[in-house]
Design goal:
20 helices
Length: 424
Amino acid sequence: MMAVVLFGLFFVMVFLNIPVAVALGVSSLAGLTMGGFPLTTLTDTMYSAIGKFTLLAIPFFILAGVIMEYAGISRRLVQFAKVCVGHRKGGLISVVVIVSCFFAAISGSGPATVAALGSILIPAMVESGYDVGMSTALMSASGAIGIVIPPSIAFVIYPSISGSSVGKLFAGGIIPGILMGVSYVVAAMICSRKSNIKPQPKASKAEIWAAFKDAIWGLLTPVIILGGIYGGIFTATESAGVAIVYGLFVGIVVYREIKIRDLWRLFVDAAVSSGTVLYIVACASVFAWILTTSHIATDMSSALMALSSNKYVLLLLINLIFLIAGCFLDASSAFYILVPIVLPIANALNVDLIHLGVMLTTNMAIGLITPPVGINLYVGCSISKIPVAEICKKIVPFVAAGIITLLLIVFFEPLSMFLPNLMH
């Protein structure tokens, strides 16, 4: 009965278009009341959930991403990619994906990647002859790589629930993120093969060198962040602080695009985004606590295990559940609600928690471009000024490409485990 109240009330509120965080909080409050728990459990659990050192990385990485955008790094990365591959057949398609991967390694957020790059890349693609719907779909899909390519906010939240290593998860997302990018390039080229594309002029060596010098500070950002983590110089959380200091130095001293008067607006933007994410984490943690304390998660795990004893059948079932959840929930909410249910199954099947985390995060990346709540689609459509209904058909090839990538990750474990296994 508790499970019916929790999930029933939650999904009714979500379908009524009530914000997910509020739906989680209200359904959790109802569950606490029904279970006879003291109401102080709500505030105590919320506070303890967000009072973790690891989760400091969330506001730090969000702030770092905002700083990089204000500093003009996204524009310089786009220009450098265009002079390198823009003149080739399908060159702009490659530019969108390559720059998205680089910016993802700075912001750690899918919607932030679309917002920062879409206003530059979508008009450029349309001007070159690409269909506006396909261009928006490609930008939205490429932005979703932001939660798979490290550093990723999803890769910070998952370890706080599962107890796995943030650094190893970051390493585990590199190859799958690149593979997802390649699959989107292929899908976009197939979709645009009949378009009348105007090739970009080929850049001279001098132009390439000039663009490289201008973009070098942005190109160094993921090297500093990931190199410092894997080199043992600082932790994933500390790397976010380093990224902020580096970004401010580049924006204020090197590029001089950030003025002192801009800092207030910059900090407010980051604070609003951080508050939204952490409020979801706080409310979702109460929901997860009730699932665990009331043995609902254990009962649901046992029910799933009873369906089959085959490892890959159960893994496909888990992925199907997360794919459906991704249509309605963000990664933070889905992880807190569903990870406590699937963890016992993963342990029983001897599935490495890093491999599981990469799989689940890839599901959530696909969810960012899946209606009805695919937030990347809404961000992309707000930039290109087309209705979401128009992009739904255009996004299908990219969802299919993402699912193919997901199946490769599920069935070929070294894709996500090769780099983490190299770490001590």
